Amino acid sequence: MSTSLDLEFWHSRYLEQAGWSEQVRARLLDRMGFRSGSVLEVGCGTGAVMTSIRTAHPDSPVFGIDLAFSSLLFHQQKTREGSQRLICADGYALPLPDRVFDLVYCHYLLLWVRRMEPLIGEMIRVLKPGGILAVFAEPDYQARIDFPPAAVERGKLQNESLIQQGARLDTGRRIGPLIIQAGLKEVIYGVMGGEWTGNQVSNLIERKVLEDDLNRLAAGAPPGNFATPEWMFIPTFYAAGKKSLEF
Length: 247
Fold this sequence. Notes:
The chain is 39% helix and 21% strand. The protein contains 7 helices and 9 strands, in the order αβαβαββαββααβαββ. By secondary structure, the protein is of the alpha/beta class.
């Protein structure tokens, strides 16, 4: 089944996800020594992270690329940003010259990519020597924890739905080794912690995403009783490294 959720909702979701990784992004870029420079987000969607990066680094020109023209148009209408900084194109074939960006990053993108190596290769290609590649957040649904036991089955059904949608469940754990194998230097990678207040799944956005994923299953699946206190932890990994001066 197709999603019933509109771009306004998904933008709210992307803003929520951007909030989860905000402190990690700031700390990671500080440790990698990024202060200002040209920036590219691959898979920018509705621009939730781009806006945050631009606010944190106002002297840095920030560009975004995405396959979904509707998402780029949504971002442009929200921000009144000039179209010259938004590109509708495939990340596997970036329509950009070699060695032009100081920072290239993605956020909750590789989860949906079947062939990560060539995409990472393209991101590295457009980086300047010494530039930074950052994978700010990639979840690992294969290692998820759902509690209490009554919520475990629903977690399994959500994973099944994500697989049907094209997601790779173990993406998070793969990104650190992946960028090391790609030849980047000074690599840092790790996993974000979790903290909750009250019933996590009562969060309206989280609940709607879960319901939408379950509704996409061919046979459908009952959403369950969301009044029951419960939580889930999806380990979410980050990684960054620098392009060798010899590249």
